[in-house]
From TrEMBL, chains A, D:
NCBIfam families: phosphoribosylformylglycinamidine synthase subunit PurS, PRK05974.1. Pathway: Purine metabolism; IMP biosynthesis via de novo pathway; 5-amino-1-(5-phospho-D-ribosyl)imidazole from N(2)-formyl-N(1)-(5-phospho-D-ribosyl)glycinamide: step 1/2. The gene is purS. Its main location: cytoplasm. This is Phosphoribosylformylglycinamidine synthase subunit PurS. InterPro entries: PurS, PurS-like_sf. Part of the phosphoribosylformylglycinamidine synthase complex involved in the purines biosynthetic pathway. Catalyzes the ATP-dependent conversion of formylglycinamide ribonucleotide (FGAR) and glutamine to yield formylglycinamidine ribonucleotide (FGAM) and glutamate. The FGAM synthase complex is composed of three subunits. PurQ produces an ammonia molecule by converting glutamine to glutamate. PurL transfers the ammonia molecule to FGAR to form FGAM in an ATP-dependent manner.
UniProtKB/TrEMBL annotation, chain B:
Its main location: cytoplasm. GO terms for biological process: 'de novo' IMP biosynthetic process. Its EC number is 6.3.5.3, 3.5.1.2. This is Phosphoribosylformylglycinamidine synthase subunit PurQ. Gene3D superfamilies: 3.40.50.880. GO terms for cellular component: cytoplasm. The gene is purQ. PROSITE patterns: GATASE_TYPE_1. Pathway: Purine metabolism; IMP biosynthesis via de novo pathway; 5-amino-1-(5-phospho-D-ribosyl)imidazole from N(2)-formyl-N(1)-(5-phospho-D-ribosyl)glycinamide: step 1/2. The active site is at C86, H195, E197. It catalyses: N(2)-formyl-N(1)-(5-phospho-beta-D-ribosyl)glycinamide + L-glutamine + ATP + H2O = 2-formamido-N(1)-(5-O-phospho-beta-D-ribosyl)acetamidine + L-glutamate + ADP + phosphate + H(+); L-glutamine + H2O = L-glutamate + NH4(+). Part of the phosphoribosylformylglycinamidine synthase complex involved in the purines biosynthetic pathway. Catalyzes the ATP-dependent conversion of formylglycinamide ribonucleotide (FGAR) and glutamine to yield formylglycinamidine ribonucleotide (FGAM) and glutamate. The FGAM synthase complex is composed of three subunits. PurQ produces an ammonia molecule by converting glutamine to glutamate. PurL transfers the ammonia molecule to FGAR to form FGAM in an ATP-dependent manner.
From TrEMBL, chain C:
The gene is purL. InterPro entries: PRibForGlyAmidine_synth_PurL, PurL_linker, PurM-like_C_dom, PurM-like_C_sf, PurM-like_N, PurM-like_N_sf. It comes from the Bacteria. Belongs to the FGAMS family. Mg(2+) 1 binds at E106, N547. Mg(2+) 2 binds at D130, D281. It comes from Lihuaxuella thermophila. One of its GO terms (molecular function) is phosphoribosylformylglycinamidine synthase activity. Keywords: ATP-binding, Cytoplasm, Ligase, Magnesium, Metal-binding, Nucleotide-binding, Purine biosynthesis. Residues 215-368, 585-725 form the PurM-like C-terminal domain. One of its GO terms (cellular component) is cytoplasm. It is an enzyme of class 6 (ligase). GO terms for biological process: 'de novo' IMP biosynthetic process. Part of the phosphoribosylformylglycinamidine synthase complex involved in the purines biosynthetic pathway. Catalyzes the ATP-dependent conversion of formylglycinamide ribonucleotide (FGAR) and glutamine to yield formylglycinamidine ribonucleotide (FGAM) and glutamate. The FGAM synthase complex is composed of three subunits. PurQ produces an ammonia molecule by converting glutamine to glutamate. PurL transfers the ammonia molecule to FGAR to form FGAM in an ATP-dependent manner. The lineage of its organism: Bacteria, Bacillati, Bacillota, Bacilli, Bacillales. This is Phosphoribosylformylglycinamidine synthase subunit PurL.
Length: 88, 227, 760, 88
């Protein structure tokens, strides 16, 4: 059993209106030191796979094809083997 | 009776709520900008629907820190009537005036249609003009109306009769116990996802929402109104 | 001669000579001849990189209409009520009481093909800005969508995300999306169409223009800061889609409806305070197009200092700043000295704003960057002197071949009931609830007729009036015969608003076509415009604005030529608002108009053969006009309970829709010399179904006779929830309305969830 | 200058409909090994602060007060010092 954590973030040049709004609010709340906020996703996937290689190949593939939108986003991932997993 | 309608950047049902108060009650109603914090002049406060701060981060969260929310909290403490509709409900949970949270609709899609509601508690200041158990038709329009709270909170809501409206028939968003609207323990702060202001005149398809407003007036006349 | 600063080229950019020698201008979509033209406009000087960029976007089809301008002149654009025809952000038509309706439709096809959610969302954002830049309060949105076959997963993805993007923008900004249409046909497989329309209401005194005048007056930038998004979007929208389109993806912008809501409210405040001399949306070609057009219109010059433009990325070049299509931005010109009043309003709404230049004497359009002059162009050469092409027209072979086709023979073997089952459950006829349920169609509490009837109706608060609106366009008809198809597009949308109780006021149109450099495509465009123009003249509905989207092709295959018509009509009195659903048991059903064997391009033909061929229905504009007068008069006399036009699927489908919408039954008898299935599914034009109380049947029939409109009493509304249609005394269709409702409602949800449906 | 990365995730006990939907589509796409998907947020905040302690205190505070909702979510964060930062 593997646990993959995929981080999907907006490309640099893509506007992040959400981040801009949050930055504005944090600043008005008195956190004036806040200079920039960017909001992305953290996606945890538990998957079975016979080998690390196979799992990794899958994670790469579906991160690119499904979890991220190559037009606006990029992704990175981490993969670890987990011994047992409570989730169904 | 004097109503205030709060306006946050991104509110968009503010004008509809103002019109509803005018059309149904012919009462005085004032738009209040989110940066004002003194609401002492008003007897009732409406937090309207819309997308305050674009619904960014989480619905309602960024608005919940506005200065006007200090005024709303004070009004709530003083026992004045506060009603949050749709985004207003989301803000009230974020600011802690109502328990729980509103999450993304279980089917992950925004949904707009008329919905049949059951009046679960007709003894609140917002529902005294309805019959207990009455079925009414009021539109919903939200992407995040999926009410969530933990089991202990739910038990408490039930014990205290704080569930005011439920979805009768199909649950449009996956909310626990089909909850469409709840009230605080003290009974003066109501949050609801459906939009009563969109069902007040015949041509709108239903007039069932009007009685939320007439209830408030009636309650106020009986309990606070000198005039 | 006054002291002239010379135009600089920036060190890291290709030099003017290199641009010429390596023909780099071609990458921006300029031809050799166009490049030569630029040099002549610059009095022999070679343009630098920024200038080539500016010319390329200003001369793109999207901004200059170079392939369509001469054809568009055929449209009637004047009328006694027209306050503003084509040429500004949106058209404006007087509706009395010092009020006017403002509306416009625009395409966002190419961006939606590569990034459906943001592409569609920003399309909505753009059209809203067009309307409020006129000084109008936007009150309604509509959209017209075309996709390929839903069996293709990519098409399902596009459909799902386009709808979500439209919903996201409209819902968040708080303008109800009240209507539209969706059609699925494999001709749109790689090139979906996303056309968005916005309707606004204006007080006459608030009417604004996109103009820069008054030497020394400041030019003010308001709204989102500029980033590198969407550079060359206008050029991109003017090209065919191909594999490289994927690489042009940075051209896709992200919409921020929250920012636009703030921008909208701020602009409304400025309008109400009378602060503005000129205002224009920064849409396609961004700062370039807005500032150049405003300057050219004002007949003056402009200096812009790009260092003052709010930027959200560092290191942007003049080229990038000028061509960025970052969303949610407006350009204003105000009287000198009133800058602070603008700034106060922007600050209140939390909007960035900056004075970035001023209006100058003469006609030079000059751009400064870090103290250097980086562009110096005679402004009219960007706008008025843009190239203009008249292309070769050629009748396509398919058009001649279709002369021989007999569509009624293709469907002759089908049993009418079977035909109804198949047509009513096709995704084109089936309910669009799956779509419009995702749109907030009630915000602003003025929607009196929600999606699901012929036209949507929005009431105007404080008056008895209401506006009816509809978008229509049948690409199959236009493909089979562009001239007839063009007429039908206008006539059908007018018929839709008439059925709602409105007098048609005027149209905005979006011409979605293939590559105009192909003679057959140019022929389609030219003929369709002829047909539309005829219909507009006959129905007194001038064209007050519109948009052209060409090069809608993938892998060399063009979409069906698809002009979309957005029609707005005025309902004088709310009492006249009429919907399509049957209302009362015992009401008499009247059919106005005549039925011929016209199945070319019909939904039945498509369902049966998987294709369209033959000739589309013919449209007689005189008959159409008489029909509208009759229906409208009957409605205004208070005689009509429901009205529904006959469109896709013909009489059988229209009857089924009236039953479904009203949850009533109907018992109908028709006499015909045609085969039953042909009669019931023919898509002959100029027909409407009315239901009226028994006493009103005769007066309405008399009215129709007086207007020369054929009118038959074909049955009555029943309470038993059965649709029963007899043709020449024999039962042709007998179905329960409940079953029909189910088929109709499940069509799209089933198609979107193909795993649950294994048939075909 | 500091860069804080805050991860906001749903509490275990809270159903994640979006995660369920993504899991479903991954499975239909043939990634049958996928057993569970949970979707959270990754929020990057660039902030100025005179010291690491001060920055950390702020991050903790606004993560708790603003960036996460204690009814449904929990958060973790990482903080690193960054030398220069291009964003304005
Ligand atoms: N994309 C859409 N957005 C909003 N409403 C839509 C959309 N597509 C269809 N509708 C609504 O569904 C109803 C039926 O559409 P349609 O069959 O195209 O009508 P008609 O043939 O009379 O023009 C109309 O009320 C229309 O406004
Ligand atoms: Mg119609």
């Amino acid at each position: 059993m593997f646990k993959a954590t995929i981080y999907v973030t907006l490309k640099e040049s893509v506007l992040d209106p959400q981040g801009v709004a949050v930055r504005g609010s944090l600043q008005t709340l008195g956190y004036e030191g806040v200079k920039d906020v960017r909001i992305g996703k953290k996606i945890e996937v538990i998957l079975e796979g016979s080998s690390r290689e196979e799992a990794e190949a899958q994670v790469k593939e579906f991160s690119e094809k499904v979890l991220s939108n190559p037009v606006t986003e990029t992704f990175t991932y981490e993969l670890e083997e987990v011994v047992s997993c409570a989730s169904q | 009776m004097r109503f205030a309608v709060t306006i946050f950047p991104g509110s968009n049902c503010d004008i509809d709520c103002i019109h509803a108060v005018e059309d149904v009650l012919n009462a005085s109603v004032t738009p209040v900008w989110h940066q004002e914090s003194d609401l002492s002049r008003y007897d009732a406060i409406i937090l309207p629907g819309g997308f305050s701060y674009g619904d960014y981060l989480r619905t309602g969260v960024l608005a919940s820190f506005s200065p006007v929310m200090e005024g709303v909290k004070k009004a709530a403490r003083e026992g004045k009537l506060v009603i949050g509709i749709c985004n207003g409900f989301q803000i009230l949970t974020e600011v802690g005036l109502l328990p729980g949270a509103l999450r993304r609709n279980s089917r992950l899609k925004f949904r707009c249609n008329f919905q049949t509601l059951r009046v679960e508690n007709a003894r609140t200041p917002f529902t005294c003009d309805y019959e207990q158990g009455e079925l009414i038709s009021i539109p919903i329009a939200h992407g995040e109306g999926n009410y969530y709270c933990d089991d202990a909170t739910l038990a408490e809501l039930k014990r205290n009769n704080q569930i005011v409206f439920t979805y009768a028939g199909e649950n449009p968003n996956g909310s626990v116990s089909d909850i469409a609207g709840i009230i605080n323990r003290e009974g003066n702060v109501l949050g609801m996802m459906p939009h009563p202001e969109r069902a007040i005149l015949d041509w709108m398809g239903s007039k069932d929402g009007a009685r939320v407003f007439t209830s408030m007036l009636q309650y106020w006349k009986e309990n606070c109104g000198a005039a | 001669m006054q002291l002239e600063q010379t135009v600089k080229s920036l060190p890291h950019e290709p030099s003017p000579e290199k641009i010429r020698d390596q023909k780099l201008y071609k990458e921006m979509g300029l031809t050799d001849a166009e490049y030569e033209q630029i040099i002549r406009h610059l009095d022999g000087r070679l343009p630098n990189w920024t200038e080539v960029g500016i010319y390329s976007v200003m001369w793109s089809e999207h901004c200059s209409y170079k392939n369509s301008k001469t054809l568009l002149r055929r449209f009637p654009t004047q009328g006694p009520r027209v306050l503003q025809g084509p040429g500004e952000g949106a058209g404006v038509i007087d509706i009395g009481d010092n009020q006017a309706v403002v509306f416009k439709i625009e395409s966002h096809n190419h961006p939606s093909a590569v990034e459906p959610f943001q592409g569609a969302a920003t399309g909505v954002g753009g059209i809203i800005r067009d309307v409020f830049s006129m000084g109008a309060r936007p009150v309604a949105l509509l959209n017209s969508l075309r996709f390929g076959d839903l069996k293709n997963p990519r098409v399902r993805y596009l459909f799902e995300h386009v709808v979500a993007g439209i919903a996201h923008y409209g819902n968040c900004i708080g303008i109800p999306t009240v209507g539209g249409e969706v059609v699925f046909d494999s001709s749109y497989e790689g090139n979906p169409l996303v056309n968005a329309m916005c309707v606004g209401i204006l007080s006459h005194d608030d009417l604004q223009k996109g103009i820069a005048k008054g030497v020394g007056n400041p030019v003010i930038y308001v709204g989102a800061s500029t980033g590198r998004d969407g550079i060359h979007g206008a050029t991109f929208a003017s090209e065919e889609l191909n594999e490289q389109s994927e690489e042009k993806r940075p051209a896709v912008q992200v919409g921020d409806p929250f920012m636009e809501k703030l921008l909208l409210e701020a602009c409304m405040e400025m309008v109400k305070k009378g602060l503005l001399l000129g205002i224009q949306d920064m849409g396609a070609a961004g700062l370039t197009c807005s500032s150049a057009e405003m300057t050219a219109k004002g007949g003056q010059g402009m200096d812009l200092n790009l260092d003052l433009v709010p930027q959200r990325e560092t290191g942007m070049t003049p080229y990038e700043i000028m061509l960025s299509e970052s969303q949610e931005r407006m350009l204003l010109v105000v009287e000198k000295g009133r800058e602070n009043e603008i700034k106060e309003i922007c600050d209140k709404w939390g909007l960035p704003s900056a004075v970035i230049g001023h209006v100058t004497e003469g006609n030079r359009y000059r751009i400064f960057f870090k103290g250097e002059l980086v562009a110096d162009i005679p402004v009219q050469t960007l706008v008025d002197d843009a190239p203009c092409y008249v292309r070769e027209e050629k009748v396509p072979a398919y058009y001649k071949e279709n002369q021989e086709v007999r569509p009624e023979e293709q469907v002759a073997q089908i049993d009418p009931e079977e035909a109804l089952n198949r047509v009513i459950s096709s995704v084109n006829i089936g309910s669009k609830r799956w779509v419009y349920e995702q749109y907030d169609h009630m915000v602003r509490t003025s929607t009196a007729v929600r999606p699901g009837s012929d036209a949507a109706v929005v009431v105007i608060r404080g008056t008895d009036k209401a506006l009816a609106m509809s978008t229509d366009g049948n690409g199959r008809y236009v493909y089979l015969d562009p001239e007839q198809g063009g007429r039908i597009a206008v006539a059908e949308s007018a018929r839709n608003v008439v059925c709602a109780g409105a007098e048609p006021l005027g149209i905005t149109d979006c011409l979605n076509f293939g590559n105009p450099e192909k003679p057959e495509i140019y022929w389609q465009l030219s003929k369709a415009i002829d047909g539309m123009a005829d219909a507009c003249r006959a129905l007194d509905t001038p064209v007050v604005g519109g948009n052209v989207s060409l090069y809608n092709e993938t892998k060399g295959r063009a979409i069906y030529p698809t002009p979309i018509v957005g029609m707005v009509g005025l309902i004088q009195n709310r009492e006249h608002i009429t919907t399509q659903g049957f209302k009362n048991e015992g009401d008499v059903i009247l059919l106005l108009g005549e039925t011929y064997a016209e199945l070319g391009g019909s939904e039945l033909q498509h369902v049966v053969t998987g294709n369209v061929s033959g000739r589309p229905p013919l449209l007689d504009l005189e008959k159409e006009r008489a029909l509208h007068q009759t229906v409208l008069q009957a409605i205004r006399d208070g005689r009509v309970h429901s009205a529904h036009d006959l469109a896709d699927g013909g009489l059988a489908v229209a009857l089924a829709e009236c039953c479904i919408s009203g949850q009533k039954g109907a018992k109908v008898q028709v006499e015909t010399t045609l085969q039953p299935v042909v009669h019931l599914f023919s898509e002959s034009q100029s027909r409407v179904l009315l239901s009226v109380s028994a006493e009103q049947a005769e007066p309405v029939m008399a009215l129709a006779r007086a207007n020369g409109v054929p009118c038959a009493r074909i049955g009555e509304v029943t309470g038993d929830l059965q649709l029963n249609i007899e043709v020449n005394g024999e039962t042709a269709i007998h179905r329960s309305v409940e079953e029909l409702t189910k088929l109709w409602e499940e069509a799209i949800p089933c198609a979107m969830n193909p795993s649950s449906d294994s048939t075909n």
